[in-house]
Amino acid sequence: MKKTIYLLCLFIVTAVSAQKTDEEQLKSIYTAALTEGKAYDWLNYLSNQVGGRLSGSVQAQQAVDYTKLQLDELGLDKVWLQPVMVPKWNRGLPEFAYFETDPGITTNVPICALGGSVATPYGGIKANVVEVKSMDDLAILGKQRLEGRIVFFNRPMDPANISTFESYSGCVDQRYSGAAEASKYGAVGIIVRSMNLRLDDYPHTGSMSYGDLAVDKRIPAAAISTNAADLLSISLRLNPDVNFYFKQNCEQLEDVQSYNVIGEIKGSTYPDEIMVVGGHLDSWDLGDGSHDDGAGCVQSMEVLHLLKKTGYKPKRTLRVVLFMNEENGLRGGNEYAAVAQKKKETHVFALESDSGGFAPRGFSFDCSEENLAKIQAWKPLFEPYLIHMFVKGHSGADIGPLKNDKMVLAGLRPDSQRYFDHHHAENDTFEHVNKRELELGAASMASLVYLVDTYGIVGTK
Fold first, then answer.
1. DSSP 3-state of 347
2. What is the pLDDT of residues 9-35, one digit of tens each?
3. Which one of 131, 181, 264, 326 is the catalytic residue?
4. Among 178, 249, 263, 373, which one is least packed by beta carbons within 10 Å?
5. What does pTM read for this prediction?
6. Residue 326 annotated in active site
């Protein structure tokens, strides 16, 4: 009997001592990410073998096939494709533009069509150009000054903000709604200063909307590089009669079927409580979408790989979701939430990475004050890894449709100072992603997922 009790006590002591402390678990996650991670190799393939992954394109389907295969090879409990209908917009032949200061005196400028724009007429558009800084300027100038002209929206991103996303939010309305508003005053087209804090020659595309405007009233919309925008603005001050010419060949086609890519590790204790980590698999077509959002996708895949690699058995069901069509429709995020609601699934936590593969600084949380306080108590565990931001704020577009009063939504927050140098532009390419920074971001995400799963959130079991 004494021997049995001794062996039982020895088993209990051994089991307890075998359990890792939180500090040890985070250390093992970061070490695995930096020495045995797969994220950088996955991104290399997505960027350099697949390339830009515009929704509805052949490349988008190739990305679906590739990431599903990689998740299958991780040995997850389940991997599947979730069908979703997505818009299909083609850029067509490269755009061309110039401005004319005097008859025959022209200067070529870099432009690109905005996503969702209509094409110019076959021969292009040439008209007097009028510079504005805001939507309010349209009403001030009125139809008399704008009819038959090209409107040039030239409101820069505010360089004074430390948060570059705040600067982006402060001027992106001209890109998204500029064409719909300018058309009301008889404008024949618009060009928009690229959403970029740096002065360079890369035009930055992005989504735009005509709202409920009739098809025959829609006017073509293009982005112009920041250097070219400044040059055009100076030229207009010297000569208000400058003409602008541009030609683009884009077209909107019928919706096509695509997929969200989903992988799952079933929870050992609370399998009905679901935690999601994800990014969007689609990208724009000018670069290869390495920062936006190939990085977020491979980091999310890496979370499940790292937890398996370190021997962690999750209590709750963990899902990686690679959403399709964030850039020009959010169809993937909406479809995932709709299916979850239909199945009456209980999501308790969702984490998105969609701010680039730069050095991680922390997380933003969309949740109750009680949950924020609980999560902020874990902040000292991250400080050795230079993670210091645990703040309330936006989480991510794709996980937004899951939001309810009980769950926690979170977003990885990397250093954003260089993000808009590449965002939606031709130079969003693999060589601009630092391997170590990408891996640190994945490790930070996996560490947060581990802590939420281990300790739960307010209201969970």
1. strand
2. 433 333 333 578 999 999 999 999 999
3. 326
4. 373
5. 0.94
6. yes
